Inverse folding.
């Protein structure tokens, strides 16, 4: 009897551990985001907290295309922030762990191609 109760206790503990481990993997899933924009018009679309890169890019493209033609994905990112900066003769994009770092990096990348760069768009995933 005592052995059976002990065995049931161990099985229950293992079952609980699997449930907790399963829940933590669901919680720690990756989040993807993207920014698409049109170089000719400056229209843009963005997305965040999608389960796949493809989904994130599709949503950003659809949002951009609802405003303009000629949209292309400028940046995609996972569990981070993304930013796009534009200037009169070029653009730059970047991703980083924070909005500020992503914006600074996008501005830096843009300034390699043109002057007077400004942040066009940014977004961050929740992870």
């Amino acid at each position: 009897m005592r052995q059976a109760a002990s065995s049931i206790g161990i099985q229950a503990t293992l079952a609980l551990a699997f449930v907790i481990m399963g829940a933590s993997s669901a919680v720690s899933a990756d989040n993807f985001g993207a920014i698409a924009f049109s170089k000719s018009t400056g229209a843009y679309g963005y997305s965040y907290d999608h389960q796949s890169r493809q989904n994130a890019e599709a949503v950003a493209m659809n949002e951009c295309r609802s405003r303009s033609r000629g949209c292309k994905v400028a940046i995609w990112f996972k569990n981070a922030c993304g930013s796009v900066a534009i200037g009169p003769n070029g653009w730059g994009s970047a991703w980083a762990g924070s909005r500020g770092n992503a914006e600074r990096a996008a501005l830096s990348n843009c300034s390699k191609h043109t002057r007077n760069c400004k942040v066009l768009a940014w977004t961050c995933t929740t992870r």
